[in-house]
Amino acid sequence: MTDAPAELVHLDVADGVATITLDSPHNRNALSRQLVTELVAHLTTVDAADDVRVVLLKSSGRVFCSGADLSEASTVPMQEGARAIVGVQRQIVALSKPVVTVVEGAARAGGIGIVAASDVVVVAEDATFALTEVKLGLTPAVISLTVFPRLTPRGLAWTALGGEVFTGTEAVDYGLATFAVPAGDLQARVDDVVAKIATGAAQGLRETKRLVGAELLERIDARGEELVELSARLFGSDEAREAMMAFLSRKKG
C-alpha cells in the first residue's frame, strides 16, 4: 500500500488572518485534482470560521500557479477539469471573507483565473502573466468568467489576442492586479494590505464583499457551463492538438 500523497495546500490561521499556501512545486502548482480538492476544502473551512476576517492566498515558491494539470488530461475528462476551475473561481468570489492573493513570480491560465477572482491582488513588479491560449488554438474560456470583467477593454484585447507575457506592473495598468511593488517590498506591502482589511467589522466585510462580487457571481452562474463545454471542445480539436504539439516541440528545440 502506497503512502497518501503529501498535503499540497496548507492552511494557517492567526490573528484573524487565514493564510492558504499552494505548495506543489513539482508541477508549478498546477491545478491537479488533489490540489483543487484541498484548496476547496480550506476555503470552505475559513468561510465558516468566526475567527477569520481575511484570507491570504499565496504560493510557497515564486510560481503562483501554472494552470490546469495537463498530465491528468488522459485520465480526467476535460469537462471535469474545466468545471473544477470554474468552481474554484466561484468559491473565491462567493466567499464571505475578502481574499487577498499574492503573486511573486508566474501565474498562467487557471492561475490567472484565481487571481482575477480574488478581491485584492498584490504582485511583484517583475511577476509575469500570460494568456497564451490563443497561440495553442484555444481561448481562455473558463477563466474569462473572472479575468475579462477585471481587465480594461484595451488591456483585455491585447493580452487575450496577443498571448504575450506581461509584467506585474502592466497587470495593475490592465486591471488584473491592485498593487505592484518591487519584489523586496512584497511581504511588507502584503502585511500592510491584510492588516488594513482585517480592521473591518465582520458584518461590514461580509456584506460589502457580497455587493462587490454580485455581478461576477451572476456571470459565473449564467455562463460557466457553456464555457466549460467550449473549453473541452477546443481542447479536443485537431487544430489545438497540432498547435500544442508544435509548441512543445519548439520548447524542446
Computed Rg: 18 Å
Distance between the termini: 40 Å
Strand content: 15-25%
Proportion of helical residues? 40-55%
Secondary-structure element string? EEHEHEEHEEHHEHEHHH
**Physical arrangement of strands within the biggest beta sheet:** 1-2-3-4-6-9
Characterize the main sheet.
Answer: 6 strands, mixed
User: What low-confidence regions span 5 or more consecutive residues with pLDDT below 50?
Assistant: none
Q: Mean pLDDT score, rounded?
A: 93
SSE class: alpha/beta
Number of helices: 9
Shape: globular
Topology, number of strands? 9
Outline the structure in words:
The protein has nine helices and nine strands. It is of the alpha/beta class and 253 residues long. A six-stranded mixed β-sheet has the order 1-2-3-4-6-9, sandwiched between helices. It is globular and about 55 Å long. The N and C termini lie far apart (40 Å).
List keywords for this structure.
253 residues; alpha/beta; 3-stranded mixed sheet; 9 helices; 15% strand
Quick structural gist:
50% of the residues lie in helices and 15% in strands. By secondary structure, it is of the alpha/beta class. The radius of gyration is 18 Å and the shape is globular.
Topology of this structure?
Blueprint: E1 9-14, E2 17-22, H1 33-47, E3 54-59, H2 78-94, E4 99-103, E5 106-108, H3 110-117, E6 120-124, E7 128-130, H4 144-150, H5 153-162, E8 166-167, H6 168-174, E9 179-181, H7 186-198, H8 202-235, H9 238-252
Parallel strand pairs: 2-3, 3-4, 4-6, 5-7, 6-9
Antiparallel strand pairs: 1-2, 7-8
